[in-house]
Amino acid sequence: MFDFLDLEQYDLFGAFWTTVQLTVFSAIGSLIWGTILAGMRVSPVPIMRSFGTAYVHIFRNTPLTLIIVFCSLGLYQTLGMTMFAEGNVDTIGFRLAVLGFIAYTSTFVCEALRSGINTVPVGQAEAARALGLSFTQVLRIVVLPQAFRSVVAPLANVLIALTKNTTVAAAISVAEAAALMRTMIENEANLIPIALLFAIGFIILTLPTGLLLGWLAKRVAVKR
Amino acid sequence: MTNLSVLYDAPGPRAKRRNVLYAVLFVAVLGAFFWWVLQTMADKNQLDAEKWDVFVTDSRIWTTFLWPGLQNTLIAASLSLVIALPLGVLFGIGRLSDHWWIRRPCDVIVEFFRAVPVLLMMIFANAAYAEWSNIDRDVRPLYAVVTGLVLYNASVLAEIVRAGVQTLPRGQGEAARAIGLRKGQTMVFVLLPQAVTAMLPAIVSQLVVIVKDTTLGGAMLGYSELLTNARLVSTNYANTIAAYTVAALIFIALNFLLTSLASWLEKRLRRGKRGTGTVVKVDPSGLMDQPGGVALTPDVSVPEPRAVATTGASPDSARTDVTS
Q1: Domains, chain A, ranges and CATH?
Q2: Can you give the residue ranges of the ABC transmembrane type-1 domain (chain A) (predicted)?
Q3: Which residue range(s) make up the domain with B207?
Q4: Inter-chain residue contact B211 with A118, CB threshold 8 Å
């Protein structure tokens, strides 16, 4: 059934490895940028709050495909941003895709974190302020650690969605799983086995992530 | 902590000055960034007036590209929702079934299609239609896009339906059983109508996801929706940045409208729900002579099935009758 699978011709593991790399780099980037955005959205400086709100509304309502395609056609081909990888088209495409995923996914991280901040009891922040902590200290030492623990499950969902969303990078010819699947479908006759193969690949990627982070969410949740 | 100002003290004179300083610094950084972006765009002649004013001066951009593109986006999105909704309800109910041979397959199907990227399903559907059906080449991308979106969103909606039914107060199902409704009747007449109203905001939010995902069909299958047509604009008028910006603005406006509709619905339903919530709360407390009569009427108007259930041969048979 799987005799079409010529691993010499089709770099299946390489393609899924690219998917994993896209996911990991984008996840780290969106976690950092999303946390900064969430901090801005709750900060005492009004202009930062409005910037955070505007950013989230703009990027969450823009289709991811548009962002990714714009990164390639707009940023790279029109404006000539090479992401510090002159000449190496593959690396440029990969980095542009990661940039697009971070810009999009961070809005979901930001919103998840903000709802996590809402679950922290008011007394925690009040006590922290009574100790004389500044806003950044309140956020960094008291509120955010508790907020993070309560949003592990939503963040896991964001991560799983991100894993699936990395297929969009195929639109700018990054050699990841969806691009390979399209090539294989064009060249081989075994449509259903190929589709099943890639579907199972993604289930293998997303299922353990969900189970592991679900377990972690229960373990670190703040009992209230 | 819904009022986020508990995170910081009310600013005194020093804090106010510091906040102003932060604001100025932030604006400076932001301004520098935008200046750099605009400078780069100007270097590549992307700020030239003729690249942007065509959207105002040349109506053909709208009549031949953007408006038909938006129409196709909306067609694919609404078709997907209309087909996915009944399927989602079916699978959602299936996952709540008492029979394992209905529940398990529904679980597997829903979990499978939720775990697989929607783009893979679109590519697969496109290839499958090309190989095993005689759907015309021109409409095949539409079929593939809708199929992929339906498969994915039906499973998401199934989860929404399941959650909607499960969050209903338990008394609703129990009361329906108590008056002798069969399980199908309980679902159709009691649980689903309430669950659907509770789910409405979630369904509208899902429509935002569907609208955004139609662009996948444009980029990968050549379905001529808004993004594809924006690309055509950019090749015809050599204004990549402008074309994509305008397309993004249309998407943002459309999705913002849908999101606002969803939150308006949610607010409205929450206000309405408070009414039924009190009715449900009154019921278990045994206040059957409660004025208003909402809690009272079901008891009076449907005495017959209840009598049948209680006068059945044995309590066991009555229960199996209710749960079967």
Answers
A1: 12-220 (1.10.3720.10)
A2: 16-213
A3: 68-271
A4: no
The Cα–Cα gap between B289 and B282 comes to 10
Q: How far is A54 from chain B (nearest CA, A)?
A: 11
**CB-CB contact of A190 with A113 (8 Å):** no
Neighboring chain A residues of B30 at a CB cutoff of 8 Å: 51
**One digit per residue, pLDDT tens: chain B, 324 residues?**
556 678 888 888 998 999 999 999 999 999 999 999 999 999 988 888 888 888 989 888 899 999 999 999 999 999 999 999 999 999 999 999 999 999 999 999 999 999 999 999 999 999 999 989 988 888 999 999 999 999 999 999 999 999 889 888 899 999 999 999 999 999 999 999 888 888 888 899 899 999 999 999 999 998 999 999 999 999 988 888 999 999 999 999 999 999 999 889 888 887 765 444 322 222 222 222 222 222 222 222 223 333 333 333 333 333 333 332
Contact A114, A38 (CB under 8 A): yes
Distance from the Cα of B66 to chain A's closest Cα (Å) equals: 14
Contact A122 B6 (CB under 8 A): yes
ipTM: 0.92
| CA B117 remoteness from chain centre | 17
Determine the residue among A65, A68, A134 to mutate to test chain B binding: the one whose Cβ has the most chain B Cβ atoms within 10 Å: A65
User: Is the Cβ–Cβ distance between B80 and B216 less than 8 Å?
Assistant: no
CB contact under 8 A, A178 and B247: no
Number of independent structural domains in chain B: 1
pTM: 0.85
CATH code at position B82: 1.10.3720.10
Phi-psi region of A13 (alpha: psi -120 to 50; beta: other; left: phi over 0): alpha
Q: Would you say residue B301 lies in a domain?
A: no
Element (H, E) at A136: helix A135-137
From chain A, pick out residues whose CB is under 8 angstroms from the CB of B216.
Answer: 65, 168, 171
Residue B119 and residue A178: Cβ atoms within 8 Å?
A: yes
